[in-house]
Amino acid sequence: MKLIIAIINNDDCPSVLSELTRDGFSVTKLSTSGGFLRAGNSTLLVGVEEDKLDSALDIIRRFSSRRTQMIQTSPAYPAEFFVTMPVEVNVGGATIFVIDVEQFIKY
Ligand code: 2BA
Question: pLDDT value at position 73?
Answer without folding.
Answer: 73
